[in-house]
Amino acid sequence: MTNLFKSLLLSVAACFVATGCGSDSSGPENGGKPRIVATTTMLADMARQIVGDKAEVIGLMAPGVDPHTYELPARAIGQLNSADLVIYNGMLLEGKMGELIESLKSKGIDVFAAASVVPHEKLFTAEDLGDGHGDPHIWGDAELWSGVINPCSKRIAALFPETEHAEIGAQAETYEGEVKALHEWIKARIAEVPRTERLLVTSHDAFNYLGKAYAVEVVGVQGISTATDAGIADIVATVDLIKERKAKAVFVESSVSPATIERIAQDAGVKIGGELFSDSCGPSGEMEMISSQEYDLGTYIGMMKHNINTVVEALK
Amino acid sequence: MNLPYSIETPKRTNRVGSSNIPCWFVGILFLLAAPSAFAARIGDLSDTTVLEQAARFFMFQDPAVRMALIGCILLGICCGLLGTFIVVRQFALVGDTLAHAVLPGIALGYLWSLEKAPLPLFIGAVATGIVGAVIVSLIRQTTKTKRDSALGIVLGGFYGVGILLISMIQERYPRDVAGLKSFLFGSAAALNESDVWMIGIITVVSVVILVLFYGQFKVVSFDAIYARSIGISAQFFHYLLMLLLAWAVVAALQAVGVVLVSAMLIIPAATAYLLTDRLHWMLLLSTCFGILVAAVGAFLSFLGPNLPTGPFIVLTASAVFLLVFAFAPRHGLVSRWWRRLKQTRQITRENSLKAIYHLQEAEGFSEEWITIEKLSEQRHRSAEETQQEVTSLVKHGLVLREGNRLQFSPTGKSRAAEIVRNHRLWELYLTDRANIAPDHVHDDAEKIEHILGEETIRRMEESLNLPSVDPHGSQIPQVKKEVTS
Amino acid sequence: MAESDSKDPALEVHDLTVAYHKKPVLWGVDFEIPAGNLVGIVGPNGAGKSTLIKAAMGLLPLSNGWVEMFGEPLEENRHRIGYVPQREDIDWDFPVSVMDVVLMGRYGKLGLFKWPKKEDRLIAEESLAKVKMLPFANRQISNLSGGQQQRVFLARALAQESDMYFMDEPFAGVDAATEGAIIELLRDLKSKGKTVFVVHHDLSTVKEYFDWLILLNTRLVAHGPTDEVFTPEMLGKTYGGQLTVMTEVAEALARDDGLDATRRH
Predict the structure, then answer these.
(1) Are residues B39 and B71 in the same domain?
(2) CB–CB of A106/A80 below 8 Å?
(3) Which H, E and C letters describe A237-294, residue by residue?
(4) Deepest in the core among A5, B103, B333, C191, taking most CB within 10 A?
(5) Nearest to residue B469, comparing CAs of B431, B413, B443, B412?
């Protein structure tokens, strides 16, 4: 009996050792492609738009995952450790994961933080907000976001031999142009909403940059991070605000529980204008068509268009 | 905090966070350039004072306030009642175990229905909760693992499985994970009508079942083996209780979250336990405390922005427990300390009376007046201390004072005689009946003299045949006491 | 009621075997006891005396054998048996009063919702009076001495108004006065035709107290009227070393080495 038990124990231990040692195939082994690991779907999309098939791009978070409370599964650690370049947002969007990713530098892995290349005066830092931390939702401002593409592409190009750099640079420039065009498109659409109606009420404070860039007043029930809850007082205050301003709609978010907004909508007698993708893109490959335009919700541009369309249609 | 204000919105009075940038400047900026309308958390925009918030709470106008309050109060009732039974059975941590055991059920319920409708989640949660309770019983019955370890095993194991399932769901269906996780962390603020209805039904069912089967629950909790011997199935009622608990836990999860459910079950009941030793009173008190802390917690969480309700409820419960712990009439820390203090003071006074009596006795009761000096000698105390003692005696009407001397008041005289009598009688009793040597009895009598009751004295006097002299030859004073029938 | 069953023995046990973790605690116990007797159950520590009572009352699963009371299976007769357990199994801080505990004895007679009526209270009070604990009716149970606690449990069983009682060491840790009071009560019960089984540890009082005896040491050593059974020879078999072979076999079986262990002897 004890012998059987011992051999059972040994085989279980052996399994653990095997899985621990076995890691995902690293760069050189998967057909020679460099491996880029990005945290959010927006960053993964940016990397793919820049580099196409030339590199393997892995997005850690699936669409709809909340980056503020994302917990790193064991497999992801393996992927991070075997990456050639890790791209993350920074400014504590990914919580403590940022520290972990920075520490990868000591292992010779290149690390790129999107927020680090944004001009300081354009960021909402901790001092601005009088809070413990700054606002990391920088992709809300398309123009700001377009400024990240070039530095990002340079780091990606560094993974390749010189001969490839031109092509990568050209792809990056094309994408940058698309995002800048998005910025103009957004401005035009927002203009359809009278200034007084531009009140965007959502679950958490994810749209500050969007609000500033496009002259929309944004109110989040929870704070910058979804980790803090909304209290009863917050719900009541939001209802007051909506009634006072006669807002037309409130919005739920894809990565946060809709319960709070549903409660507010009911109490204020206002409709829910739709679901916004906050902190994440939509499901990859899902196409949406608004005013004869079709776009992939899984891309940054698609996500932004969806959000803006939803807001504008509800508020105008 | 700087909040460049957005234009064309009606200006609210008393806005907190007044900008460092004067309004006219903002207006010019607007005219000149793209306006920077800005955003904020609603909590930062609100500017009400604590008093205003308090007043608003009691108007009960806001549905959010009403829902949260009613929901939490119902939970308080439910948890107070059920918590009583698990506290007296020394099974209190089953609440925590169930709170963790329902997690895989929630995940499974979601996987089965693939939507976040409340019913499948609820059924799944209760199912795994009950399975957890069954496994706890099985572990205890088949191994020598004790109650606490068995609970811990199920708690950890089920929670681990639950987290695993939720991670899987996060991978496959990430859009709904946020809602599932909210099941765990709870938000009383987001309770809607159907949530409150569910809590209400669970509370009513629990109350009805506990009242109808009160006798069975009582005997099964007290003496399960005896219950079986008279034909009451201890197993059935145990699992019925577990079922009610699982329902209550799932309901409570939504309001206060997984970590605090256990506290809501245990603390009101434990507080009630400090105040009574009857089960029915304990149930009543526990329910009252449950209602109280729920209401106060909800109120406190309303006073400012971003205050979660669950922790405030639990903090209130803990505060109430500490208050009762300190001030409970019989067993409270402060009550006991106070009683001891009063007792010590009374003994000091009586010893003073005794000393005065001895002084008078030494003179053969010829002189009624005693000087304070002599008293201080007799008592081996300093002059100051004696002065204080005398003041205290005067205050209690035991002694009359004239300048530097004092004598007994009638009450004081009879009390002094009683003490001395008690002392001498006890000495006699010890030497006569307990065969203790006369020189050993004094110290004992010093302590006993203060606490002998009239009944005991009477019996001793009878048994010693109304003696008049103690082992040292001193007179035993006769004290006439009215016989109260 | 006892008269109508006078043909049936009060308790009949056949080939009763109870095992705990594969070790037999009672083995092939077989006896019949007629009604209206004070029966002592006697044997060394670990002989299975408590187990016998609990098994007879269906509180333990039987590995083998059956039990009948008054000629019928146990479940039909639950309302006719009263149980006085050992004192240690209780949480004395439980918030109940002496009266609460004694009233529990009436639960067997109450309907689905156990709400005691006035007559139940009266019976409970009478039972308390019989054990001289009525003045303590409103005390919480921890404020009692050992002997007083024992008497409360006795009162609870008396309140059941049963025909047969099982008492597990009712005299343990009890002062002489209480012991005397209890044996008086038992004799009173016997005079009313009740049958009382008592697990007893004090051999010096066995002859005085009991008119029927069960001598037990995992196996039934003997049973019958005290005069016949309480002999040095029987006592030797119960307490002496003559059953060691049996216990060795029992241990070996428990270790699951099969009977190889015995063959080595």
Answers:
(1) no
(2) no
(3) HHHHHHHHHCCCEEEEECCCCCHHHHHHHHHHCCEEEEEECCCCCCCCCCEEEECCEE
(4) B103
(5) B431
- Does one domain contain both A99 and A236? no
> Which of A229, A253, A267, A297 to mutate to probe the B interface, most B CBs <10 Å?
A229
C20: left (phi over 0), alpha (psi -120 to 50) or beta: beta
C87, closest residue in chain B (CA to CA): B223
Q: Are C181 and C170 in contact (CB under 8 A)?
A: no
Chains contacting A (3 or more CB pairs within 8 Å): B
Provide the 8-state DSSP code for C11.
E
Question: In chain C, what are the domains?
Answer: 3-263 (3.40.50.300)
Domain end residue (candidates: B328, B343, B373): B328
- B280: containing domain: 51-328
Q: Are residues B314 and B398 in the same domain?
A: no
Are C207 and C49 in contact, with CB atoms under 8 Å apart? Answer: no
Choose the closest CB to B174 out of A62, A219, A238. Answer: A62
Determine whether the interchain pair C107/B278 forms a contact, defined as Cβ–Cβ distance below 8 Å: no
Boundaries of domain holding A304: 192-315
Write the CATH number for B130. 1.10.3470.10
For A227, other C-beta atoms within 10 Å of its C-beta total 13
Tell whether A112 and A205 lie within a shared domain: no
Please name the member of B7, B63, B188 whose beta carbon is closest to the beta carbon of A267. B63
Residues A176 and A198 in one domain: no
Tokens of B96: 């925590």
Largest Cα–Cα distance in chain A? 80
Largest CA distance in chain B: 114
Residues A160 and A233 reside in one and the same domain: no
Domain contains B103: yes
Rounded (10°) CA dihedral A19, A22, A27, A28: -160
Element (H, E) at C64: strand C64-69
Q: How many domains does chain A have?
A: 2
Q: Which of C79, C94, C120 to mutate to test the interface with B (most CBs of B within 10 A)?
A: C94
Residue B207 shares a structural domain with residue B306: yes
End-to-end CA distance of chain A: 76
C6 vs B18: which has the higher pLDDT: C6
Q: Please give the average per-residue pLDDT across C50-67, as a whole number.
A: 89
Stretch (H or E) spanning A183: helix A162-191
What is the tens place of the pLDDT at every residue in A37-84?
999 999 999 999 998 888 899 999 888 788 887 878 888 888 999 999
Task: Judge whether C232 and C256 are in contact, CB under 8 Å.
Answer: no
Looking at the structure, do residues A43 and A132 belong to the same domain, yes or no? yes
Query: b/e per residue, B397-412, with b = 16+ CB within 10 A?
Result: ebbbeeeebbbbbeeb
pLDDT 10s digits, B69-91? 999 999 999 999 999 999 999 88
Lowest mean pLDDT among A87-91, B287-291, B435-439: B435-439
Q: Where are the alpha helices (DSSP H) in B1-142?
A: 23-32, 42-45, 50-59, 63-88, 94-113, 118-142
For CA atoms C224, C227, C229, C230, give the dihedral sign: positive
A242 token code pair? 């909506």
Encoding tokens for residue C128?
């308390």
CATH number of the domain residue A163 falls in? 3.40.50.1980
- Which positions in chain B touch A207 (Cβ < 8 Å)? 39
Last residue in a domain, options A124, A146, A180: A180
Same domain, residue pair A218 and A151: no
Torsion, Cα C68 C69 C73 C78, to 10 degrees, reads -140
Report how many domains make up chain B: 3
Distances (CA, A) of A278 to A40, A123, A174, C18, C192: 11, 18, 25, 67, 84
Q: Which of A153, A180, A207 is the last residue of a domain?
A: A180
- The predicted model scores a pTM of 0.78
